[in-house]
Amino acid sequence: MAVRQNLHKALSPCILEVERKFHSLAVHQLTQNGGNPPFQSLRTLPLQIIRDTYYDKADLLSSSGAWIRRRNGIWEAKIRKGGDFTNSRFEELSRVSDIAACVENITKIQAHERENFGLGIMADFTTTRETWIADDEFRIVRDNMDFGHEVGEVELQRALEGEGGGVPSEEEKMVEMQRMDERISEFMRRYSWAFTSGKPVGKLTAYFEMMGKKRS
């Protein structure tokens, strides 16, 4: 999918997220010694209930690689920086002013967050999330949505600063995300006993299929 350049003013530090989806866990319950080799460490985080409401305007945002949502009432934006729907690379925005600038850049709409940035709801669902931290840094999540779909992800996240502590360049972001993606790939190969080999389907894709909507 093509990504528009300069979707927003970069933040310092920039928050990068790289994720690889998996169809499901190959074990009933994830444990440190559930397979060979065992995880170096495994920490279970509290169960989460997540309400996600996604917004768009005539598919302008999603077709540009930008996803705007309210997660449990808090605005977030994810800007695609490469990969595909299975192996994804994102820059994340959390400041309302940056989200508004991103929306305006793509849609040309100037609107306050109270007006949902001039956007309409395109998806709304609740997720029950199980989360583990493996080997002290790899986040493994298993999501079960209220419309009957399950999917998992292995994620790495990093706050990146540019040379000399300034704003990182696009090249610096791409290099770092490539490194993160390679590390996730190696992690999943090493612990292949934990993950099924079936093709994963992302939650939004599954939601649109359930609603009979065509994904742009």
Automatic annotation (TrEMBL):
Lineage: superkingdom: Eukaryota
GO BP: thiamine diphosphate metabolic process; thiamine metabolic process
InterPro entries: CYTH-like_dom_sf, THTPA, ThTPase_euk
GO molecular function annotation: magnesium ion binding; thiamine triphosphate phosphatase activity
Protein name: CYTH-like domain-containing protein
Native source organism of the sequence: Cercophora samala
Lineage: Eukaryota, Fungi, Dikarya, Ascomycota, Pezizomycotina
